[in-house]
Write a structure and sequence with these properties.
mainly beta; Jelly Rolls; Immunoglobulin-like; six-stranded mixed sheet; 3% helix
Length: 658
């Protein structure tokens, strides 16, 4: 019995002390897990399976973050923390957020700095499967910021390239369901995962370059990987088939990079495997990275070999060409007033069929040794050797005007950064439609009844009419482009205005609402919370009999930027205008977007929940709901969740089914 008790206590003690710490010893500060030097922040981090190096799958019971014991986080203490798994090893762009639907909320509350440690214990443990990479996301909701020497407070360490995506701002509190455009960094937070036990064997290295399934890899690449704590050396193998090493065989390397000693074949698939070595042995079960080499120097490297582009009859990119800048050389044509470094420019040409065309670069991917998705293009008239610059474009899509029908124009595309920064992309030329019927306020389309929905496929043809609009919000004036117009008469209920864009859109709209008349508009409200291609929502507490004018235009307040295709929906009757001020406690739902079910906070105070589609149809009503509501029967799309509280107040929420 004593032996049994002893081993039971030993097992229990090991279980309680099981933990894995990453980045231990680093005291450089960074933006993760939250940015304390800004009023609000939302940060996502990816910790790879290799980094964590857990002995087995298990429950994560909590996490710890580290900072100077004297640092204050009084204005950075209200956190919501999410965990999830992903196949990604890094973020590919500044908008490549992992959807909230793929994450689980594990904590919501106030955190404190206790002797340099912030300890978060999960009410319900998170099961880590030890097969995927782990996502740690944190949202900080406390207004104001902490000084701490005019810097962030939490300790971080440098790891996988672009393994952190973050957004921080002093005034805008980001919505994790629709995060705005953020920023990328390699510096993750020093972190401890409690509940997991470390593997007794040394961890596998994470390959930093090339990434798995990468294409356009140079023929003489330098392979790079992240250092493994405790490693004394590494072994590199490269083969032409899975599991072979006919190119490089178990080459021992003492650093974290290796230049392939022979020139690889063009447009060929190779298989790379790297293991770490220490005094106890070699890492086991390391994955193989597959990559494809570049086809070689682009055929359209020079103006004289420019690829001919097909003109699309509308603004869509049905006809497009693929291109890449890896291996391209500088053509010697000066950029003039344009920005960027054209050291890898490639060339295209088209014959104008209209006086204005839209040129778009889509599916932009970084394929160089230095990550960069910043790509520019320049349009020229004339002929090779005697070119005149017509347009410089830093945005991925721009209108080029003043063209002569029947004339040939040249487009060169180049990665904006210098050596090592290269991209692949799709390029297309679209035709601008004539101004839509609702281009001016006087032609505003009338929402005669609710729900109302209209797809503005010809928004690209909208003009700025008499100039910028003055849209107001919270007493301040916010200028916006004059786009297309809609109008409705208030009915005393809340009217939700929802603007969505098609997949892959770069259009960043702003919604402006006005009263008065078209000749004497009075700003009422505006919203521009989201980024490129993201949903904008504005709720109007309407007054019965009052006419409202709605403008959907480009957010830009400096230049006349083009609009693009969108769908506007207006829903009314979900929440009355008088109910808006009666909502005493804001109920939250998560995850949102969701897959099958949603969790509702404060569910004990909810009398009923109604699910309403954008056509105003009541699809489902649940009396006295539990904390989880199963909505797997809904089709993908946006819905309104109408909540009737037990105190008589009401609340409406927008939810999105994946």
């Amino acid at each position: 019995m004593k032996k049994l008790l002893f081993f039971s206590l030993l097992f229990f003690n090991i279980f309680l002390n099981a933990q894995i710490t990453l980045g231990a010893g680093s005291t450089t500060v960074g933006v993760a897990p939250v940015s304390t030097f800004f009023g609000y922040s939302y940060v996502q981090q990816i910790f790879t399976k290799n980094e964590i190096n857990a002995n087995a799958a298990g429950n994560i019971t909590g996490i710890k973050f580290y900072l100077n014991p004297n640092s204050t986080i009084a204005n950075s203490s209200s956190w919501v923390v999410y965990l999830g798994t992903t196949a990604k090893t890094n973020f590919t762009s500044s908008v490549d957020w992992i959807p909230l639907s793929q994450l689980n909320q594990v904590f919501s509350g106030t955190v404190t700095n206790v002797n340099g440690i912030v300890t978060i214990t999960f009410p319900v443990p998170f099961f880590y499967n030890n097969t995927g990479n782990l996502v740690v996301a944190a949202k900080e909701n406390t207004p104001n910021y902490d000084i701490n020497g005019f810097d962030d407070a939490f300790y971080g360490y440098y790891s996988n390239v672009n393994s952190v995506l973050y957004y921080s701002d002093d005034n805008i509190n980001p919505n994790p369901s629709f995060p705005p455009t953020g920023s990328l960094t390699d510096q993750k937070s020093v972190i401890t995962f409690t509940g997991l036990a470390a593997s007794p064997t040394i961890a596998c290295p994470d390959v930093a370059y090339p990434l798995n399934n990468a294409v356009y890899i140079p023929l003489s690449p330098t392979v790079e990987w992240n250092a493994v704590p405790g490693a004394t050396s590494y072994k590199v193998s490269i083969g032409t088939t899975m599991g072979t090493s006919d190119v490089v065989n178990q080459q021992s390397v003492s650093v974290t990079s290796f230049m392939v000693p022979q020139t690889l074949s063009a447009n060929t698939v190779y298989y790379l495997k790297i293991t770490a070595v220490n005094t106890t042995g070699e890492s086991q079960g390391c994955s193989t990275t597959m990559f494809t080499t570049t086809p070689g120097q682009p055929t359209n490297d020079e103006c004289s070999n420019a690829t001919t582009l097909t003109i699309n009859p509308n603004a869509s990119c049905t006809a497009f060409n693929q291109g890449y800048t890896l291996g391209a050389t500088d053509s010697g044509v000066i950029v003039g007033s344009c920005f960027g470094n054209p050291d890898d420019d490639v060339w295209f040409k088209f014959v104008a069929t209209a006086i204005t065309h839209k040129i778009s670069l889509n599916n932009i991917t970084s394929i160089g040794t230095n990550f960069s998705d910043d790509i520019d293009f320049q349009v020229f008239s004339g002929a090779c050797g005697n070119l005149t610059s017509v347009l410089c474009s830093e945005p991925a899509s721009s209108l080029v005007a003043g063209l002569t029908v029947g004339s040939t124009y040249y487009v060169r595309v180049f990665s904006a950064a210098g050596a090592g920064s290269n991209n692949s992309f799709d390029i297309c030329v679209g035709t601008v439609p004539p101004p839509p019927v609702n281009d001016a306020c006087s032609g505003a389309l009338v929402a005669t009844s609710f729900p109302y929905s209209y797809t503005q496929s010809d928004a690209l043809g909208a003009t700025n009419n008499s100039g910028f609009l003055n849209a107001c919000s919270n007493g301040t004036i916010d200028r916006m482009n004059d786009g297309t117009w809609f109008t409705f008469v208030g009915n005393g209920s809340n009217v939700d205005i929802i603007v969505t864009m098609p997949a892959g859109s770069y259009f960043d709209p702003q919604i402006g609402v006005f009263t008065g008349s078209c000749t004497a508009l009075n700003c009422f409200d505006t919203v521009d919370d989201a980024g490129d291609g993201e949903i904008e929502v504005l709720s109007v507490a309407s007054v019965a009999g009052t006419t409202y004018y709605v403008n959907v235009g480009n957010y830009n307040d400096v230049s006349d930027e083009a609009e693009d295709a969108f769908t506007i929906s207006m829903v009314s009757g979900v929440l009355s205008a008088t109910d808006v001020d009666e909502v005493k406690t804001k109920v939250k739902v998560y995850p949102n977007p969701f897959t099958d079910s949603i969790h509702i906070s404060d569910f004990k105070n909810i009398k009923s929940v109604s699910v309403i589609d954008l056509l105003g149809r009541h699809l489902k009503t649940i009396e006295n709901p539990a904390s989880f509501i199963h909505l797997d029967q809904l089709k993908s799309g946006m819905y309104i969740l109408s909540l009737l509280m037990k105190d008589g107040s009401k609340q409406s929420l927008k939810i999105i089914k994946k």
